[in-house]
């Protein structure tokens, strides 16, 4: 059933939310507009706040469903050698991988911030809440969503540690934090050279 968990959560993560929203609402391939990223931020810039928020909520839900519904269901209905905590981590890794490397988009995808937030919301809600506050403050003050995402990702393991999470969960949070920062490497370069777009700037 471990394989079933991996496949199910990967496919759930692969659901191309922003791509479908762009096609349905405007008949466009969002990968050809703005930053080209298939995530909530680029959807917000290209299509506006309504579609951007919709994509954000769905992508968060993908991660939350994986660890709060899929993993517990498999743990309670099938025999598995893994504990629920380990199964949730495996489900979280799979859904984030699906979002970042979607099978429906040629194994390309978003940066994983919203889906990772959903995963960790189901595993360590207090730490995610504090990291969300960091995101709101940094994004609101700077105007850069990418800077808010990077800062909140870096702060997340600290909040998880302060919340007393067990070692396996903490290491999982650190791994997600590193992945998010790595996926933002192009944004980091643009921030350094003052070429990054602010949240209020429409790209199409």
What would you note in describing this structure?
The longest helix is centred in the first third of the chain and has 29 residues, at 49-77. Helix 3 packs antiparallel against helix 4 and helix 4 crosses helix 6 (113-123). Helices cover 73% and strands 0% of the residues. It contains ten helices and no strands.
Quick recap:
The chain is an all-alpha fold.
- Euclidean distance between termini CA atoms: 45 Å
Number of helices: 10
Helix share bin: over 70%
Q: Tell me the count of domains.
A: 1
Average pLDDT rating? 92
Oligomer: single chain
Overall, the morphology is globular
Can you tell me the residue ranges where pLDDT is under 50 for at least 5 consecutive residues?
none
- Specify the biggest β-sheet: none
Strand content: under 5%
Radius of gyration: 17 Å
Q: What is the N-to-C succession of helices and strands?
A: HHHHHHHHHH
Give the helix/strand class: mainly alpha
The overall strand count is 0
Secondary structure layout:
Blueprint: H1 2-14, H2 17-26, H3 40-47, H4 49-77, H5 84-100, H6 113-123, H7 125-142, H8 145-162, H9 167-183, H10 185-192
Helix pairs in contact: 1-4, 1-5, 2-4, 3-4, 4-5, 4-6, 5-6, 6-7, 6-9, 7-8, 8-9
Features:
mainly alpha; globular; 73% helix; 204 residues; 10 helices
């Amino acid at each position: 059933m471990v394989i079933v968990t991996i496949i199910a959560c990967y496919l759930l993560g692969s659901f191309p939310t922003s791509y479908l929203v762009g096609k349905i609402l405007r008949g466009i391939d969002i990968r050809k507009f703005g930053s080209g990223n298939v995530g909530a931020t680029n959807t917000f810039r290209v299509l506006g706040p309504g579609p951007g928020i919709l994509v954000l909520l769905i992508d968060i839900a993908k991660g939350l469903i994986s660890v709060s519904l899929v993993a517990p269901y498999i743990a309670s209905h099938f025999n598995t050698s893994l504990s629920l905590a380990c199964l949730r981590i495996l489900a979280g890794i799979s859904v984030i991988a699906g979002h970042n490397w979607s099978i429906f988009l040629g194994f390309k995808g978003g940066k994983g911030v919203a889906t990772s937030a959903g995963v960790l919301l189901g595993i360590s809600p207090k730490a995610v809440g504090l990291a969300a506050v960091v995101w709101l403050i940094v994004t609101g003050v700077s105007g850069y969503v990418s800077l808010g995402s990077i800062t909140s990702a870096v702060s997340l393991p600290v909040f998880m540690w302060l919340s007393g999470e067990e070692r396996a969960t903490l290491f999982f949070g650190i791994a997600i934090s590193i992945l998010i920062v790595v996926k933002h490497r192009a944004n980091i370069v643009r921030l350094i050279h003052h070429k990054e777009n602010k949240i209020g700037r429409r790209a199409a």
